[in-house]
Amino acid sequence: MNKKIHKKIFIYGLCLLLLGWTSSLWAQVQFKARLMTGVGPVSNVRIKIESFSTPDEIRGLQQALAGGGEDGFFAAFRQLNKASLRFFGGPGLNIGLHAAYEIPTDNGYKIFLYGKSQSVEPGSSRRGLGGFLFLVVVLDLDKNYKGEGKIYETARIRFTDLGTMEMESSITAPKMLVSISPVK
């Protein structure tokens, strides 16, 4: 009888380990896309997602904001390395993203990525805007993880009761991401 219990515990433990391992593999995904800025040449973009944010991480950011203001928030925010945007061509650019969510939709998925506000065009700057602004990437993907997206360089966000972040508005027009597809 005792051996059967140990065997069941071992099998359940192995199943939990495999479940955790496969879900962490799934969170590590890459996409390729093309950035349409409307003013310059098209850039190739690689979007790499290491992991998705948890409600506890976002609540920790809320506490950092309440306790340390914007400086405390951004210090905690920069420690959460969830994803990156890498631009190829020209001088190149690599932007760290610190919050990531995937939300299932009827037709596929929406993925939201958040970083500190900055321009996605090499050599361009955002002087004089200041404030509590973010770079927000929204990917609208079908069930095969192909689709289009937008990059908002100067977005305002808010925290939700569910332990997530949402974009409220953007000061500037979004840049368009086209031909998004997973990297195999």
Classify the beta-strand content into a percent band.
35-45%
Distance between the termini: 47 Å
Query: What is the residue-averaged pLDDT?
Result: 79
Low-confidence stretches: 12-26
The secondary structure category is alpha+beta
> Which outline best applies?
globular
**Helix count, per DSSP?**
2
Number of strands: 10
The proportion of residues forming helix, as a percent range, comes to 25-40%
| H-E order | HEEHEEEEEEEE
Domain count: the total is 1
Largest sheet: 10 strands, antiparallel
Radius of gyration: 19 Å
Explain the overall architecture.
23% of the residues are buried. The chain has two helices and ten strands, in the order αββαββββββββ. The chain has helices at residues 2-27, 55-79; strands at 29-36, 43-49, 83-88, 93-97, 99-104, 108-116, 134-142, 147-159, 165-170, 175-182. Strands 1, 2, 3, 4, 5, 6, 7, 8, 9 and 10 form a ten-stranded antiparallel sheet that branches. The protein is globular, with a radius of gyration of 19 Å. The protein is of the alpha+beta class. The protein has one domain (28-182).
Protein topology:
Elements: H1 2-27, E1 29-36, E2 43-49, H2 55-79, E3 83-88, E4 93-97, E5 99-104, E6 108-116, E7 134-142, E8 147-159, E9 165-170, E10 175-182
Task: Please provide a brief summary of the model.
Helices cover 28% and strands 42% of the residues. The protein has one domain (28-182).
Features:
2 helices; 184 residues; globular; alpha+beta; 10-stranded antiparallel β-sheet; single chain
